[in-house]
Design brief:
Elements lengths: L1 H23 L2 H7 L1 E12 L12 E15 L3 E14 L7 E16 L3 E13 L11 E16 L4 E14 L6 E16 L2 E17 L2 E4 L6 E13 L2 E14 L2 E18 L2 E13 L7 H6 L19 E15 L2 E14 L6 E15 L2 E14 L7 E14 L4 E14 L7 E13 L2
Length: about 450
C-alpha cells in the first residue's frame, strides 16, 4: 500500500500546484499562449456503482478536477496540449479513491530548418479496458501512454510536388500489468501531388518495427518474434462546396519470423458534407491491421473526437498480451439545427479480429440526441444510446445489449461560472448469462469555473 499512497500523494500535490499556477499566471502570458483552463466539481449518485446483477451497491461519487487546453504558435515552434487532472472519491467505498491524469495529449513541433526539417514530439494518454466482456467500471479501466518523437523532412520539388520523409521512436506503456509494453521505431515516406487548389493526390508508405517487448515482468529485445508492420496506400483529398472528401486505399501487412504473416486491406475514407436536405452529414470507414500494444488510436482522433456523442470511438480498445488485430470500423452521423433545436443521429459498426487470442468481437450501435436552447445561457437535452456487442470467440458469454437514456441541462450563470445536471438510466441484457445483466439509475450535478 505504501507505493500507492505515495503515488496518490504525488498526484494530489500536482493538482494543487496546477491550480495555484493557473490562478496566479500572468493574463498577458495567457493571451500569448492561448490558454484555456477550468476548475470543476462533480457530484453523482448511482444505485449500482459496480454495475452488477445481484448484491448491488449504491454510492455517492465526488470528482474534483482541472481541465487545461494550451495552444502556442510561433514562427519556428508550436505546441498543442490538453489534459485533465482529477481526484475521485467514493463515499461508500465501492471502489478505492482515484487520482489520475487522464484523457491527455500533447504535440510539440520545432522547426530546425524552416519549411524543410522539423522535429515533432507527441504524447497521448487514452483509456482502455482490461476485459471487453466485463462492465465498464473503474476496476476494468486502464491507461495507455504513447510517446512519439522524431524528425520530419518536407522537400518541395516544384510548385505542385512535395516529398515528405519521417522517422520516429515510439514507446507504449500500458498500466495493465498483463498487457504488453513496447518500444519501436517507425519510418514513413509520402509523395504529394497538388493537382489544383482543391485537389491533391498522394502515395504513402509506412514501416514500423518493435524493438523491445515487456510482458509479464519479462523484457525481450531484438527477438525473432518481434512484429514488423508495413503499409502502402494511395490517397486523395478534395474540397468542394459545403464539404470535403478524403480517401486512402492500400494494403497492410504484419509479420515476424516465428509466426504467419497477417495481411489485409488498408482503408481510411471520410466524406463530410453540409446542406444535404438541410442536414450536415459525416461518414467514415476504416480498415487496417495493428498490434494490441499500440492499438488503432491516433493523435488526430483524440483532438477531433467529441467525448459525449461522437461515434468515432464508442467502444474502448482492450489491453492484452501482444497480438495482431484486424479492425474494420464504420460510422455515419447526421445533424441539423432548427431554430432553437438541434438533433443528431449517429450509427457505428466495429469488427475486431485477433490473430491468437479469443477476443474477437463485433459491435453495432446507435446514438440519438435532441437539444434545445431554451433561453440565453440555458440548454436542455435528451440522449438515447444502444450498443449491441457480440463476443464471437466466447459464445458461452452471450451477446450484450446495453441501452442508456439521459436527460441533461446546463445553465451559464455568469461569464465564468456554469452548472449542468443529468438524470440517467442504463440497462444491459444478455441472451445467455443473467449474471452479466444489470440496471443502474444515476443523477448528478457539475459546477464549473472558467479560469481563463
Amino acid at each position: 500500500m505504501a507505493p500507492r499512497r505515495m503515488v496518490v500523494k504525488t498526484l494530489n500535490t500536482k493538482i494543487a500546484i496546477t491550480i495555484l499556477v493557473l490562478f496566479f499566471i500572468n493574463p498577458s502570458f495567457v493571451q500569448a499562449l492561448q490558454l484555456s483552463a477550468s476548475l470543476y466539481s462533480k457530484t453523482e449518485y448511482t444505485t449500482n456503482a459496480r454495475l452488477e446483477s445481484i448484491n448491488t451497491e449504491d454510492d455517492v461519487i465526488e470528482r474534483v478536477g482541472v481541465n487545461v487546453l494550451l495552444n502556442e504558435e510561433r514562427k519556428r515552434f508550436n505546441a498543442n496540449a490538453r489534459f485533465n487532472i482529477y481526484q475521485e472519491f467514493y463515499l461508500n467505498n465501492t471502489f478505492s479513491d482515484q487520482t489520475q491524469l487522464t484523457t491527455g495529449f500533447g504535440l510539440f513541433n520545432f522547426d530546425i530548418v524552416e519549411e524543410f526539417l522539423d522535429w515533432r514530439t507527441s504524447f497521448t494518454r487514452t483509456d482502455v479496458l482490461s476485459d471487453a466482456a466485463a462492465v465498464d467500471t473503474v476496476d476494468n479501466r486502464e491507461q495507455r501512454n504513447t510517446f512519439r518523437t522524431g524528425p520530419t523532412i518536407n522537400y518541395r520539388m516544384n510548385q505542385s510536388s512535395t516529398v515528405r520523409l519521417g522517422a520516429n521512436y515510439v514507446q507504449v506503456i500500458n498500466s495493465d500489468e498483463g498487457a504488453a509494453d513496447t518500444k519501436r521505431v517507425d519510418a514513413n515516406a509520402s509523395y504529394i501531388y497538388q493537382y489544383n487548389s482543391i485537389t491533391d493526390f498522394s502515395l504513402n508508405s509506412n514501416y514500423d518495427r518493435v524493438i523491445e517487448v515487456k510482458e509479464n515482468g519479462q523484457t525481450r529485445s531484438n527477438s525473432n518474434e518481434h512484429l514488423q508492420n508495413a503499409s502502402l496506400n494511395v490517397g486523395m483529398n478534395r474540397q468542394f462546396s459545403y464539404g470535403s472528401f478524403s480517401a486512402k486505399v492500400g494494403r497492410n501487412e504484419v509479420r515476424s519470423e516465428d509466426r504467419e504473416t497477417v495481411s489485409g486491406n488498408f482503408f481510411n475514407i471520410q466524406l463530410e458534407r453540409e446542406q444535404v436536405f438541410y442536414h450536415s452529414v459525416l461518414a467514415k470507414y476504416s480498415e487496417s491491421v495493428s498490434d494490441s500494444s499500440i492499438g488503432f488510436g491516433s493523435f488526430e482522433d483524440l483532438i477531433t473526437a467529441n467525448p459525449d456523442l461522437s461515434p468515432a470511438s464508442p467502444i474502448l480498445e482492450v489491453s492484452t498480451q501482444l497480438d495482431i488485430i484486424k479492425q474494420k470500423r464504420a460510422n455515419v452521423s447526421i445533424k441539423r439545427n432548427i431554430d432553437s433545436y438541434e438533433y443528431s443521429i449517429s450509427a457505428f459498426w466495429i469488427d475486431l479480429n485477433y490473430d491468437i487470442q479469443n477476443n474477437d468481437e463485433r459491435s453495432i450501435g446507435l446514438v440519438l440526441n435532441l437539444r434545445q436552447n431554451i433561453q440565453d445561457g440555458l440548454t436542455a437535452g435528451f440522449t438515447y444510446r444502444q450498443v449491441n456487442q457480440e463476443l464471437i470467440d466466447r459464445p458461452g458469454d452471450g451477446d450484450n445489449v446495453t441501452q442508456t437514456y439521459t436527460i441533461d441541462s446546463a445553465y451559464r450563470w455568469t461569464k465564468d461560472f456554469s452548472t449542468n445536471g443529468f438524470v440517467a438510466y442504463e440497462s444491459r441484457e444478455n441472451n445467455k448469462q443473467a449474471l452479466r445483466e444489470y440496471e443502474d439509475f444515476s443523477v448528478g450535478v457539475t459546477l464549473k469555473w472558467d479560469l481563463y
